Amino acid sequence: METLIKKLNYDKMDLSLIREAGAIIRRGGLVAFPTETVYGLGGDALNPQSSEKIYAAKGRPSDNPLIVHIAEKEDVYKIARQVPEKAKQLMEAFWPGPLTLIFPKDSIVPDKTTGGLDTVAVRMPSDKIAAAFIHAAGGFVAAPSANASGRPSTTMAEHVVEDLSGRIEMILDGGQAVIGLESTIVDVSEEHPVILRPGVITKEMLEAVIGPLETDQALIAPDSSVKPKAPGMKYRHYAPKAVLTIVEGESKAVVEAVNHLAARAEEEGKRVGIIATDETADCYQYGTVRSLGARCHEEEISMHLFDVLRSFDETDVDCIYSESFGDAKIGQAIMNRLLKAAGHKVIHV
Ligand code: TXA
Ligand code: MG
Fold first, then answer.
1. 324 lies in which domain range?
2. 106 and 178 together in one domain
3. What is the pLDDT of residues 139-153, one digit of tens each?
4. 185: CA distance to ligand 2 center in Å?
5. Using a 6 Å CB cutoff, which residues line ligand 1?
6. How far does residue 230's CA lie from ligand 1's centre (Å)?
7. What's the Cα-to-Cα distance from 67 to each of 86, 109, 162, 238, 281, rounded to whole Å?
8. What's the total number of domains in the chain?
């Protein structure tokens, strides 16, 4: 199948193009589209065959449920059996935006879309192209991140082309996703809300609205045998082709350790990649150095993370050493993705 790639302008959106993309979804086809977090691979959430096509195009296990994207807050009541008070407060505070909520599912949502679960994940993106596209598609777009299963999520149309070209009808190109990390997921289907995936909407921001909430134990102790509540969190996502190791410690010690490790690897004939920050990039003497941005601007780091991981796949490095990030604010979400990419290989210095 030929994949059409269509560029869209946020200031002057081509509505006929949006309608064309919406019509593909209504016919049961697939369209990748930009959101503020990462690109999504969209299909009709209420059509089980569309969900099957999404799993096939991504090469994703079909027990891993999809997020249903909506463009109107009220539409949540059409697909959720119950919307608790705390969920309403979160919707009021953070929708549209990078927050996904898990509700008991209404029978209108096919089991295929939710991987057989009786709950449904719902998100209302703030991205203007995404909102217009969801409207045009009929209001309910199932969309996982638009990457091939096991690869880093896509933050620009070029990444989607790399992974899904020839497998989907259309890619809407809205440029670089401004956040770059997937949405925060909160399960509100049971009495006590639980964070299933950290994102730029942090625990503190959520607690400011609804009071104390738990984080899924499987995220805190990821090497343990605790099974994550979000099925997708159990897979080794975001895996670059090279072996990735995170080096943790005080900045100067990290630079020294990475220089030492990189020198040794090069002696062994290996090609080395280094994931640095603007503050340290010039201090590394070996390998291919890529900076994620300035540490004082966490948003830059999150925005560039997946692109840098992908770019190393193209340079054929054998091993990558990465600096680590603190737990405060977005740091937790950044580290969650990095640790998964590294299969939890960390060296403390
Ligand atoms: O920012 C995002 O959330 C992006 C954009 C495209 O919206 N989407 C995204 O989807 O990251 P995906 O499929 O790559 O990740 C969704 C995660 C998976 O870990 C999945 O297991 C979990 O959400 N999930 C979906 N439905 C669930 C449910 N009913 N219960 C628990 N976890 C669920
Ligand atoms: Mg994903």
1. 243-348
2. yes
3. 999 999 999 998 899
4. 12
5. 35, 37-38, 40, 64-67, 100, 102, 114, 117, 119-121, 123, 143-145, 182-183, 185, 196, 229-233
6. 7
7. 20, 11, 23, 18, 37
8. 2
